[in-house]
Amino acid sequence: MQVDTRDAYLELLKQCLTRAMFVDEERSLGRRRYGIALMMQQLARRGYIVVPMLPSVAGQAVRRVPGLPGSRVLAWLLARRGFAVVPDGDGTREHPQRRSGRRGMRGWSRRLARTEREFGVGWPEHAETMSGLRRLDNAADCVVQVLHNRVPGDLLEAGVWRGGTTILMRAVLAAYDDDERRVWVADSFQGLPKPDAAAFPADAGLDFTVHENLSVGVQQVRANFARYGLLDDRVEFLPGWFKDTLPAAPVDRLAVLRLDGDLYESTMDALQALYPKLSVGGYCIIDDYGAFLACRRAVDDYRAAHGITEEILPVDWTAAYWQRERE
Questions:
Q1: What string of DSSP letters covers 119-178?
Q2: How would you label 101-110 residue by residue, b for 16+ Cβ within 10 Å and e otherwise?
Q3: pTM, whole model, 2 decimals?
Q4: Cα separation, 171 vs 248, whole angstroms
Q5: Could you tell me the sign of the dihedral formed by the alpha carbons of 138, 144, 150, 152, in that order?
Q6: How confident is the model at residue 97 (pLDDT cuts 50, 70, 90)?
Q7: Which of these, 185, 142, 153, 148, lies nearest to 167 by C-alpha position?
Q8: By CB count within 10 A, which of 2, 4, 75, 170 is most buried?
């Protein structure tokens, strides 16, 4: 069997960026994450996945999962929070089972930790990205599609944390010998802004400034690019709050726009400044569409105000995306 070296390289990189293949990351942290990972794992084993409730998936939503006790209640609870349980059309990624020589809770925790990294349900200690393997697959696939279809424009992520997804984007360009496009890395590099609930009521209660691990300096992100041999003059950094940096960013056209701003304000700032630069045929990816109602409202409000009707498709339990079809 002939192996595509590009695919092999990118797959290995995804495993590294998420630490899915590292023994010291094989643990599930926190009761809530442990419970979510367990739920995801049990659903995936039966061929189902949790996604944001969108028109594109509403007709596929199920009320119960065969062989899973309590699945009716689970589906009902998820539906109340804006999620749907649907058949997993893409299939479940099978991770190799490592033989640790141990049984019981530690082995179980390792299996759940791999599930966490597939679906990106936690904040890993060492990995360069919170995005799970499915979200990385989506980002890479979107870049490959715009390369194949010769959609003009650069690649940009607004809200990068440790830089993992933008590192992958740069790797796709390298793997496909694209020597023209740039990867824009936009972030405050100070964490998320304090919510302005008076101006943006949807952000009330979403104060992420208490989480110090969300603040990753630009030099650390640059070092992460360098670790994988992907830091060069075609990686451009845009440090600062979105409202200050994105409107004046020297970006002419975009082929892939990925937003990971969590808040209504951050998401709206990025859409207003950057979506008009997205080429027809390009992709807009929203990392937090399912996770945070504030982000979802910003996306829905922007789309409604600008008559954007392209179908939104789910990636996993939180991310969603669409392809721009018209100016």
A1: HT-S--SS-S-SS-HHHHHHHHHHHHHHHHTT---EEEEE--TTSHHHHHHHHHHHHTT-
A2: eeeeeebebb
A3: 0.91
A4: 27
A5: positive
A6: very low
A7: 185
A8: 170
Q: Write down the H helix ranges in the chain.
A: 5-18, 31-45, 55-58, 71-80, 105-119, 133-148, 164-175, 218-227, 242-245, 264-274, 293-305
Are the C-beta atoms of 190 and 196 separated by less than 8 Å?
A: no
Structure tokens at 22: 């590292």
What is the residue type of 52? P
Joined together, the tokens standing for residue 170 give 């740069």
Instruction: Report residue 98 as tokens.
Output: 């490592």
Distance CA 86, CA 76 (A): 13
pLDDT at 53 over 90: yes
Q: Distance (Å, rounded) from C-alpha 27 to C-alpha 39?
A: 16
- Distance (Å, rounded) from C-alpha 122 to C-alpha 28? 9
Sign of CA dihedral 279, 10, 158, 33: positive
> Which tokens hold the place of 295?
């982000």
**The domain at 133-323 falls in which architecture?**
3-Layer(aba) Sandwich (3.40)
Domain map (residue ranges) of the chain: 17-119, 133-323
244: its two tokens? 């200050």
The gap from C-alpha 19 to its chain's centroid, in whole angstroms, comes to: 15
The amino acid at 145:
Q
Q: How far apart are CA 31 and CA 270, in angstroms?
A: 33
Answer whether 158's CB lies under 8 Å from 242's CB. yes
Do 284 and 278 form a contact (C-beta atoms < 8 A)? yes
Which residue shows structure tokens 């997804």? 165
Token match 């904040």: residue? 123
pLDDT in tens, 269-314: 999 999 999 999 999 999 999 999 999 999 999 999 999 999 999 9
Q: Give the residue from 53, 102, 50 showing the smallest Cα distance to 74.
A: 50
